[in-house]
Design a protein that fits this description.
- The chain is mostly beta strands and 173 residues long.
- It is built from two helices and 15 strands.
- The protein has two domains: 68 residues, no CATH class; 94 residues, Immunoglobulin-like (Sandwich), CATH 2.60.40.10.
- Strands 7, 10, 11, 13, 14 and 15 form a six-stranded mixed beta sheet that branches. Strands 2-3-4 form a three-stranded antiparallel beta sheet, with no helix packed on it. A two-stranded antiparallel sheet has the order 1-5.
- The longest helix has 17 residues.
- It comes from Candidatus Syntrophocurvum alkaliphilum.
Length: 173
C-alpha cells in the first residue's frame, strides 16, 4: 500500500511546512540547524496496515517534529498593505520618498531591502546599500529619465515577499 502527501491533503489533512536544515552526520547523529536532535525525536517505522493507521502514525511524527521546533504547522505570511507608488520628480530638487507597509502573521520583525532597476521589473535589480527601512528617500542626484524601484520584505520563518514596481520619472528643471 502506498500513500502520499497529495492524497493526505486532499482528504483534509493539514499541510505542513518544514523549515531548516536537516543533516545526518557521522556516527548516526541527526542534526537540525546545527543542533543534535535527541533520540526522543526518532520515529520508528510504521506498522500500519490501513490508511487510518498510517495517518495516525504520520500525525504522531508531526507532533514530535513540531514540539522539537523542527516543523511549523503554518508558515507565517507577509502581507503588503501599502505598495510603493509611481512618482514624478524634478531634477535638482528631489525630496520625495517611496513607502511600503506590511505585516506578518506571526508578529515577528520585518526587514526591508530596496532595489533599483533599469526595466519595469521586480527581479534582478541592483541592491541599494543602506536602503533597509519601509521608507526609502530617493537619491537627490537622480538625472533625467525613469528609474524603477521595488522592495523585498522578509521576516523570520516567512517566505520573502516582493513589492510591486514603482517608477520614478525624473524631469529636467
Amino acid at each position: 500500500m502506498t500513500y502520499n502527501t497529495k492524497n493526505y491533503t486532499e482528504q483534509g489533512g493539514e499541510k505542513t511546512i518544514i523549515s531548516g536544515e536537516l543533516n545526518i552526520i557521522e556516527q548516526g547523529k541527526l542534526m537540525f540547524n546545527g543542533e543534535e536532535l535527541s533520540q526522543a525525536l526518532y520515529q520508528s517505522n510504521s506498522q500500519a496496515t490501513t490508511i487510518a493507521g498510517l495517518v495516525a502514525d504520520f500525525n504522531k511524527l508531526l507532533v514530535k517534529l513540531r514540539s522539537a521546533g523542527v516543523m511549523f504547522s503554518k508558515a507565517p505570511v507577509i502581507t503588503i498593505l501599502i505598495e510603493p507608488e509611481d512618482v514624478i520628480v524634478t531634477e535638482g530638487s528631489i525630496e520625495e520618498s517611496l513607502t511600503v507597509d506590511a505585516t506578518v502573521s506571526n508578529g515577528s520583525e520585518l526587514s526591508y531591502q530596496w532595489y533599483s532597476n533599469n526595466t519595469e521589473s521586480n527581479e534582478d535589480g541592483t541592491l541599494i546599500e543602506g536602503a533597509t527601512e519601509a521608507v526609502f528617500d530617493l537619491p537627490t542626484n537622480l538625472t533625467e529619465g525613469t528609474i524603477y524601484y521595488y522592495c523585498v520584505i522578509t521576516a523570520e520563518e516567512a517566505p520573502d515577499v516582493t513589492s510591486e514596481v514603482a517608477s520614478v520619472t525624473v524631469e529636467g528643471d
